[in-house]
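quick one, two chains, predict together pls
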Amino acid sequence: MSTHASAPSRESVTALLGMLAYGELVAFDRIAADARLAPDLQRRATLSAMAAAEINNFHRLVSRITELGGDPDAVMEPFVAAIDTFHDSTKPRDWLESLVKVYVGDAIADDFFREIAALLEPADRDLVLEVLHNDANAEFAVAEINAAIAADRTITGRLALWARRLVGEALSQAQRVAAEHDAITTIVLEGTGDLTKVGELIKRIMQAHSERMTAVGLNN
Amino acid sequence: MSTHASAPSRESVTALLGMLAYGELVAFDRIAADARLAPDLQRRATLSAMAAAEINNFHRLVSRITELGGDPDAVMEPFVAAIDTFHDSTKPRDWLESLVKVYVGDAIADDFFREIAALLEPADRDLVLEVLHNDANAEFAVAEINAAIAADRTITGRLALWARRLVGEALSQAQRVAAEHDAITTIVLEGTGDLTKVGELIKRIMQAHSERMTAVGLNN
């Protein structure tokens, strides 16, 4: 990946981990609630298990924040509004919407954190890479979405629109975080070297998203 | 414990495991939702982690049901109404009520399953004993409740009333299960030997509950 312009400050790293940690805590909460939308108990349990996995990651991130001398509540707090707003504005109305959200959301989050991880020192880099989502989540979501589309092609338009809304809301909250939190912007800027590279990072993430949507038949 | 009158039938055992499994799935869902009532992010994470633990237990129970030739959805289904009704009628209104529910509910469920486990064959007995709740849950709940009572004695009456309501609703749903599901009644009857022993089992569980309420200052 890119060479480090400089090692990120402890403050930037704890802020980044705090953002991740609060993201995991809320993902737990929202996916747990979305599991109720499942058409049967087995599928409900599958989504519930995905939610539960976020909590293990949350604890690992909080341990590292504490190790770095950060106060977990204090470092998470600045990201509460943006992350809550994202979820409040993207509540799935049914099972398929909840799966598209898991699929789109996990993948974009993972792509972002994989890029960011490359900018960190080894201990934090490894931690961030380890809390990425399980491929099994995406496989389950894709299989369900594919089966639903095969059974009824008319849902494609609605789900494609939903996926675009998810990305739009995610980008708008990401911009809010970037504008409000210098610590996060700094880590990306210092890591990538300049603003052009930040643009390229976003472009790569959006390109990968677009390819995934095509693969699942939702890029109409 | 008691000597076996006879080994419980496979049908009775899968029904019991199905009841336990659905109980875990719903406990996950409800505790995950109750975590939002927490006064800060750390406490919210603690309750979220308790919820997540239920899902691991759920998976172990479902594996065993499948191993015994049962269909997990089918064996859980008969208990959906009773368990959902219990939770729908006992939604905590605040953080302390959610902790009292965890404390009272976990303990009574564990006492019941410890007694029932003694009536099962070794493989099922061990599984049922292993999915009992972590003592740390109770310790956390008791510490929070004690601290809240120390800060404001006037909440004792409300929480004691709440605990009584929880037990009342639990008993009324347990009676419904006993009336509707011969498989569960049979396992208890065959295991304990006669109806008097069932009465004694309930009495022991209620006695232990009462002692716990006294210990936490809620038996007024």
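Chain A has a mean pLDDT of 89.
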